[in-house]
Specification:
Mean pLDDT: 96
Bound molecules: S-adenosyl-L-homocysteine
Helix content: 40-55%
Number of helices: 13
Radius of gyration: 19 Å
């Protein structure tokens, strides 16, 4: 297997492949690519889930607006800053603020939050994940001090995207957002779920080709996991091994990308994070959201969550060392 440009045929063969030796070769190649650019370091990012209100109605997501069973919350600015302070005391140099597409998280409010965090933590990296916005809004977020933005494209295939989302959402709009973000200067993260309903190997190939074209600095890949109060509540979860293969292929095709071992990966297997790192991931995003809110940020069922204190950080750092990697608390910006 060569890291040089993989043909569609070879990629499809790898995606569909079930030969354990071949999968091991793929993971080894991914580890080599990651080691070349990043060594053995694993970057820690503190995740703060600031609101679970959402105007969108994605069929897979527990935060969808039609989920009337979900109790909704919104952190105040003071609560967000308190999370950042707690994270800073633990040594985090990156804060990731994520939310549902909360109508009250308008530009004024978002800029207020970004400005306040930036003022108090001038040297930290600030990652935002506030969904689809206009180019002007993104530019305002960047000017206020945002450095990075996560917006998974979810599915690059028009047809598959339409089976995961209501008709008022489309992949072209999302791809446009991603291009705007990159253009404005954000370190930009795209990504997708593995094993979501109706997904084919060809869809996954299209996702990889989209990443190759966009060249995002960050790539989030995790298994689909059903949430009981959604239209896909009865569907099966995505497979661990296929998710790992997609992480490895993303690493091989975009060797300099920052790729997290995602929460969803840590949810479907007790050692999901370690396996993700061994398949080429190099980021981990422990949760800093207050415990009471955290259980309400219910994207899918049984979302894993460790504690939030120093013991948890030590525990995670230990797991990472045991897996053969080095915890890194620095900003960990994208290369170049
Ligand atoms: N509103 C923001 C954040 C969305 S939640 C945005 O639109 O970007 C973050 C990610 O969780 C989503 O991009 C999606 O890929 C993932 N997610 C949502 N529901 C999921 C599920 N049931 N299983 C696995 N991942 C899910």
């Amino acid at each position: 297997m060569r890291a040089a440009r993989l043909s569609d045929r070879n990629l499809l063969r790898l995606i569909a492949g079930v030969d354990p030796d071949e999968n091991e070769d793929l993971f080894a190649l991914a580890r080599k690519a990651r080691k070349k650019h990043y060594g053995n370091g694993v970057y820690f990012r503190g995740l703060i889930e600031i609101t679970n209100y959402c105007r969108n109605d994605c069929y897979y997501c527990g935060l969808r607006r039609s989920n009337a069973k979900l109790e909704r919350y919104r952190l105040s600015l003071e609560e967000i800053l308190a999370c950042c302070r707690a994270g800073d005391r633990l040594g985090y140099k990156t804060f990731v603020l994520q939310g549902g597409d909360d109508p009250q998280l308008n530009d004024t409010r978002a800029v207020e939050i970004i400005t306040a965090v930036r003022r108090e933590f001038p040297g930290h990296a600030l990652t935002l994940s506030f969904g689809e916005r206009s180019r002007e809004s993104y530019a305002a977020f960047f000017a206020a001090g945002g450095n990075r933005y996560l917006l998974r494209h979810e599915s690059a295939s028009e047809e598959h995207y339409a089976r995961l989302h209501p008709p008022d959402m489309n992949p072209a709009a999302r791809k446009e957002c991603l291009r705007n973000l990159k253009d404005i200067g954000f370190q930009t993260g795209a990504g997708f779920m593995v094993g979501s309903p109706f997904q084919t190997p060809e869809n996954l190939l299209e996702d990889l080709r989209f990443l190759e074209e966009l060249q995002p600095q960050m790539i989030g890949i995790g298994p689909f996991i059903p949430h009981k109060d959604t239209p896909f509540g009865g569907a099966g979860a995505g497979s661990l091994i296929l998710t790992l293969k997609m992480v490895a292929l993303a690493r091989i095709m975009l060797p300099k990308a920052l790729i997290p071992a995602t929460t969803a990966l840590g949810t479907i297997a007790p050692d999901g994070w370690e396996q993700g790192l061994k398949a080429g991931a190099n980021v981990i995003m422990p949760n800093l959201t207050p415990m009471a809110a955290r259980r309400l940020y219910a994207l899918y069922d049984n979302k894993v969550s460790a504690g939030d204190g120093a013991e948890t950080l030590d525990y995670l750092a230990d797991r990472i060392r045991t897996a053969g990697f080095t915890p890194e608390m620095g900003r960990g910006d994208a290369l170049e």
